[in-house]
Write a structure and sequence with these properties.
The complex is a heterodimer of chains A (257) and B (278). With 257 residues, chain A is mainly alpha-helical. Helices cover 82% and strands 0% of the residues of chain A. Chain B is an alpha/beta fold. The chains are: A mainly alpha (257), B alpha/beta (278). Chain A: InterPro entries: MetI-like (IPR000515), MetI-like_sf (IPR035906).
């Protein structure tokens, strides 16, 4: 059995063990499904309610993807700016850290005030949640580029743009993908956050109304969906990462296979 | 290809590089470090100048001045008849660390200057699969790296990386080649092999070369002229031509004339070091 296959089996076994333990504990301790429903109940709820849930899943998915895509653009541009200029790095960092320290729950009502309840605040909250790790990683990657690598090109008369395209950005790709995996999950958190506060559609909204109806299995079904979407997005980026920055991952026992 | 003798010894030599009272001082007032005393140095076209001296003497500073990576604090640096401004030059550079980009294959690494340097860059998109690719493969064959074009840098040994590095430095046919201890990190046998490769490349293409090294044998084997520098703040304290016939062989380095030159330069450097410690 190859190492990669064994690793996958172990990961699957761990997930299975987690749910079995949960199920058994709930049965053994006789926990009410108003407090914690059993996984089997949650999955049954998912199965029965799927036709109703489906539009909400799509809503959450597309708002997250738009917010995430905008977050990547904003993150890369700001990261490239402050990573290539010492002055920009020193001056812009305090402001960025200040902004990222603001709890995003506090920002959602402001977005709602400006744009009304609906998908726009969700997109903006997703953006606000996910762009910061991208900025930090792009900036760090660029700022730590070995000057010798750039000197070779500089002596050839390379412009700043040549340096960025041929050395800075390719070298930063491993950092970029690491941040994408964090940012993608953050974007989901942002969307759902905005949906729970002010929206009439989306998984966040479903969970909110379900919990006010004491439909706890449905709340947990929402959590399962979010977890699944997060993992799916993570896997997508891992696969792309393996193709694009395989050069940085020479230790075959650790590289994504 | 036999070198044309008239080409090796042109009647009127033009200066490829000229430093006039060029000096470099780093740091702000209060903590100033003089890296290079005002220096005069003239290097003719087609010359192979070896710059030797104790470490930290400003050898690399001279290279950085000529390449335009560092600006002189005083004096002037003229390269190819013009005051240095990195943009306009056609220079090839190779450092002790091969600095090949780890995400590119050897072929793409060597091709990189053609993507950057005018006039090659204008045709890059059109020629990178044809003419430029052939050019890179021919250059790799010249240094014994045929068959490694599609390897990544980490798959090659230190000596092979340095060969690829030389290819990259020469691929755009620079008239001026700057070498900063390119063989310094290699073992003795690989190094001597690469001296031979370097000599072949120089005889074939005849660029002006400035080689910074602390290996006197290397300087004598490769150079047409050796300049010895003093410890910091650096200045040139000895300037001698090397007239051994080419192509030179490793056996030549055991001849008495070669050993005598070596010995004399060694003493110059030792006395220069003592000036500082005294």
């Amino acid at each position: 059995m190859t190492y990669a296959l064994r690793r996958r089996l172990w990961a699957a076994a761990l997930i299975l063990a987690f749910f079995v333990t949960w199920e058994v504990l709930c049965l053994a301790l006789n926990v009410s499904d108003l407090i914690v429903p059993r996984p089997s109940q949650v999955i049954a709820t998912l199965w029965v309610r799927m036709p109703v849930l489906w539009p909400h899943i799509l809503q959450t998915l597309w708002t997250t993807m738009i917010g995430f895509a905008l977050g990547v653009i904003v993150g890369v541009v700001i990261g490239a700016l402050i990573g290539t200029s010492r002055v920009a790095y020193d001056t812009a960092y305090p402001l960025l850290i200040g902004f990222s320290s603001i709890p995003k729950v506090a920002v959602v009502p402001i977005f709602v005030l400006w744009f009304g309840a609906g998908p726009v605040p969700a997109v903006l909250t997703a953006l606000a949640m996910c762009f910061f790790p991208i900025v930090v990683n792009i900036a760090t990657g660029l700022a730590t580029t070995e000057p010798e690598m750039e000197d070779v090109l500089k002596s050839l008369g390379a412009s700043k743009m040549d340096l960025l395209l041929n050395v800075g950005l390719p070298r930063t790709m491993p950092f970029f993908f690491a941040s994408l995996k964090i940012a993608a999950t953050f974007a989901f958190v942002g969307t759902v956050l905005a949906e729970t506060v002010a929206s009439n559609k989306g998984i966040g909204n479903v969970m909110m109304s379900a919990s006010s109806n004491f439909d706890v299995p449905l709340v947990f079904a929402g959590l399962f969906i979010l977890a699944f979407l997060g993992v799916a997005l993570y896997v997508v980026f891992s696969v792309i990462e393996g193709r694009v920055v395989g050069w940085a991952n020479r230790r075959t026992d650790l590289s994504p296979s | 290809m036999t070198p044309d003798l008239a080409q090796i010894q042109p009647e009127r030599k033009r200066a490829a590089v000229e430093l006039s009272r060029a000096g470099v001082t780093f740091g702000q007032a209060g903590a100033r470090v003089q890296a290079l005393q005002p220096t005069d140095l003239r290097i003719d076209e087609g010359e192979f100048l070896a710059l030797v001296g104790p470490s930290g003497c400003g050898k690399s500073t001279i290279l950085k001045l000529v390449s335009g990576l560092t600006r002189p604090s005083e004096g002037a640096v003229i390269v190819g008849g013009r005051e240095v401004a990195a943009k306009a030059l056609r220079i090839g550079m190779a450092f002790q660390n091969p600095t090949l980009l780890p995400w590119l294959t050897i072929e793409k690494n060597v091709m990189l200057p053609l993507k950057i340097v005018r006039p090659f860059r204008h045709d890059f998109a059109r020629k990178k699969r044809g003419e430029y690719r052939d050019r890179v493969h021919a250059a790799l064959a010249d240094v014994g790296l045929q068959g490694f074009a599609n390897h990544y840098p980490w798959q090659l040994s230190g000596g092979m990386l340095q060969r690829a590095n030389l290819c990259r430095a020469l691929i755009h046919d620079p008239s001026l080649l700057l070498l900063d201890e390119p063989f310094g990190a290699l073992d003795q046998f690989t190094r001597e092999e690469l001296w031979g490769t370097m000599q072949d490349l120089w005889i074939k293409r005849r660029p002006t070369v400035i080689l910074v090294t602390h290996d006197l044998k290397e300087a004598g084997f490769l150079g047409t002229r050796i300049c010895v520098m003093s410890a910091r703040p650096g200045r040139i304290i000895d300037d001698s031509p090397v007239t051994f016939p080419r192509p030179r062989s490793i056996e030549m380095t055991f001849q008495p004339e070669f050993t005598a030159l070596n010995q004399r330069l060694r003493e110059r450097i030792i006395s220069a070091r003592q000036e500082v410690t005294a």
